[in-house]
């Protein structure tokens, strides 16, 4: 099934590891085959992985974008998820963690990233940061 991206002027996105930037007008792209695609709002820079839940998200993102580095990123993911789960007592969030793990094990990295957003929101609420936008900060440049 094709994937249609509607892009804002200047919006960046990554396709199979390549950073692409839209021109000065709105555009729509249609990807006809399977590709690893992340919009700028979903890309996290290493320095932004500054909380336990974000440290779970970051290696999943790397597994999704970098097929060659998946083994190393998986080891980091497994460590970070175990640490996160060890600190959580909320049954529904633990279930989300298990769901994230199942998605990763199935190679469904994008789905795992979207599930991981729930962990980031939960963590932000617990840390007293209030409601957090479901998009990630997109500071700096993509990729």
Report what the structure shows.
The structure is a single chain. The protein has 143 residues and is α+β, with helices and mostly antiparallel strands. The protein folds into two domains: 3-42; 46-126. Helices cover 45% and strands 15% of the residues.
Which keywords apply here?
3-stranded antiparallel sheet; 143 residues; alpha+beta; globular; 4 helices
Quick overview:
By secondary structure, the protein is an alpha+beta fold.
Mean pLDDT: 88
Principal-axes geometry comes out as: globular
Helix/strand order, N-terminal first: EEEEEHHHH
Distance between the termini: 26 Å
The profile of the biggest β sheet is:
3 strands, antiparallel
Q: State the helix count.
A: 4
How much helical structure, as a percent, in the residues?
Answer: 40-55%
Beta-strand percent range: 5-15%
Give the number of domains. 2
Low-pLDDT stretches are 137-143
Number of strands: 5
Helical/strand content category:
alpha+beta
In spatial order, strands of the major sheet run 3-2-5
Write the layout of secondary structure elements.
Blueprint: E1 3-7, E2 12-15, E3 18-21, E4 27-31, E5 37-39, H1 52-65, H2 70-87, H3 91-105, H4 109-126
Antiparallel strand pairs: 1-4, 2-3, 2-5
């Amino acid at each position: 099934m094709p994937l249609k991206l509607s892009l804002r002027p200047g919006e960046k996105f990554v396709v199979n590891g390549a950073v692409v930037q839209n021109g000065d007008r709105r555009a729509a792209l249609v990807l006809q085959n399977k590709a690893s695609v992340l919009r700028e709002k979903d890309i996290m820079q290493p320095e932004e992985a500054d909380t336990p839940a974000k440290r779970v998200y970051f290696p999943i993102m790397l597994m999704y974008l970098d097929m060659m580095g998946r083994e190393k990123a998986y080891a980091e993911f497994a460590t970070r998820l175990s640490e996160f789960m060890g600190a959580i007592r909320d049954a529904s969030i633990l279930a989300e963690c298990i769901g994230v793990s199942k998605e990763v094990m199935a190679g469904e990295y994008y789905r795992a990233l979207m599930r991981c957003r729930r962990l980031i929101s939960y963590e932000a609420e617990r840390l007293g940061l209030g409601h957090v936008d479901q998009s990630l900060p997109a500071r700096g440049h993509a990729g």
